[in-house]
Write a structure and sequence with these properties.
The longest helix has 30 residues. This protein is an all-alpha fold. It has one domain. It has 1 helix and no strands.
């Protein structure tokens, strides 16, 4: 039905946003100096 189509579209959009957020987070972390994560 219409509701199912709307929910499916919203789910697809949510997945796209989540994937974009994960990618941006990964890229930001990748730019950090490695020494930030190594214990002294």
């Amino acid at each position: 039905g219409i509701l199912d189509a709307t929910l499916a579209r919203d789910a697809d959009r949510a997945c796209e946003l989540l994937a974009a957020h994960i990618r941006l987070t990964y890229e930001a972390v990748a730019r950090l100096p490695p020494t930030l994560f190594t214990p002294d």
